[in-house]
């Protein structure tokens, strides 16, 4: 079997839910040797169906037990990277904070992920994907034009703004070490990541190219050439004909003979 590009990279992942395991899965899929530290004796429902736990070994430790903490530190001494998604201060209270770990292994890239960040008014507050994308404004853009915002599963905050940004940060840190640098802390907040994902839309709004009204913009179902349509058999089809040549083909194949359809980017002529 072919080895992935991260072959030889060792990652220690402290088990969590959602974005942490997804980040570990991505790195494992790329060939990293990921060891997950589970809570010893964890019998929570659903652990057997841990679909994001593929491709890595695990060990059960009690991080309240000094002997088990020392075991974790010994694993980290030989690791290249770390993944943790606890609330701020948890790793420090367990004797596994960045100062302790980097003193034992100065080349380690210490990846940590929270919802609201390590500091600030909300840093110790509970939250989920829905809350993180709401505070950034991203949630406002999702939903029916005359209805309430609709959460897009937990793709934007947990996975897009969290796991992928942490994976990218860890890889950047690993590259820095490879080029002769030292280890570092990669601090990812899902709310920050979700806001970053919305960069283009905030820029378009500042330029007057985006409105806060849903289903009135190019990419939110406002454009008839970028939307979903129900078919005669009750199933749905997605249409994404933004480029002029694809729009011309859509107009031709759909028999849209009304002259107003020729002005593709004239919003005043878009069907309501």
Number of separate domains: 2
CATH architectural group of the largest domain: 3-Layer(aba) Sandwich
Helix content: 25-40%
Number of β-strand runs: 8
| Rg of Cα set | 23 Å
Assign the CATH superfamily of the largest domain: Crotonobetainyl-coa:carnitine coa-transferase, domain 1
Protein structure class? alpha/beta
Q: Could you spell the SSE succession in H and E letters?
A: EHEEHEHHEHHEHHEEH
- Quick one: biggest sheet? 6 strands, parallel
CATH topology of the largest domain: Rossmann fold
Q: What proportion strand? A: 15-25%
Number of helices: 9
Low-confidence stretches: none
Through-space gap between termini: 54 Å
Q: What is the CATH C level class of the largest domain, in words?
A: Alpha Beta
Mean pLDDT: 94
The oligomeric state is single chain
Looking at the structure, what is the overall shape? Answer: elongated
Strand order, sheet with most strands: 3-2-1-4-5-6
Task: Give an account of the 3D structure.
The protein is of the alpha/beta class and 272 residues long. The chain folds into two domains: 10-199, 3-Layer(aba) Sandwich (Rossmann fold); 226-269, no CATH class. 34% of the residues lie in helices and 16% in strands. The strands form two sheets. A six-stranded parallel β-sheet has the order 3-2-1-4-5-6, sandwiched between helices. A two-stranded antiparallel sheet has the order 7-8. A hairpin with a 5-residue loop joins strand 7 (226-230) and strand 8. The chain is elongated, with a radius of gyration of 23 Å. The N and C termini lie far apart (54 Å).
């Amino acid at each position: 079997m072919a080895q992935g590009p991260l072959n030889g990279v060792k990652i220690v992942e402290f088990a969590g839910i959602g974005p942490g395991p997804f980040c570990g899965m991505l790195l494992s899929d790329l060939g990293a040797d990921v060891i997950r530290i589970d809570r010893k004796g964890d019998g929570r429902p659903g652990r057997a169906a841990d679909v994001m736990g593929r491709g890595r070994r695990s060990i059960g430790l009690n991080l309240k037990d000094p002997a088990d903490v020392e075991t974790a530190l010994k694993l980290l001494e030989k690791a290249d990277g770390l993944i943790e998604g606890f609330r701020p201060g948890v790793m420090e209270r367990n004797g596994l904070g960045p100062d302790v770990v980097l003193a034992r292994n100065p080349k380690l890239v210490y990846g940590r992920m929270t919802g609201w960040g390590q500091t600030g008014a909300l840093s110790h507050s509970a939250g989920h994907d829905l809350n993180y994308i709401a505070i950034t404004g991203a949630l406002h853009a999702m939903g029916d034009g005359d209805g309430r915002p609709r959460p897009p599963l937990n793709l934007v905050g947990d996975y897009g703004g969290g796991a992928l940004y942490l994976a990218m940060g860890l890889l950047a840190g690993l590259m820095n070490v490879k080029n002769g640098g030292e280890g570092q802390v990669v601090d990812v907040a899902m709310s920050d990541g979700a806001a970053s994902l919305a960069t283009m839309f905030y820029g378009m709004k500042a330029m007057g190219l985006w409105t806060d009204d849903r289903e009135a913009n190019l990419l939110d179902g406002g454009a008839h050439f970028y939307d979903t349509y129900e078919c005669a058999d009750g199933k749905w089809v997605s249409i994404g004909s933004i480029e002029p040549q694809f729009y011309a083909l859509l107009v031709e194949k759909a028999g849209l003979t009304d002259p107003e359809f020729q002005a593709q980017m004239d919003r005043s002529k878009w069907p309501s």
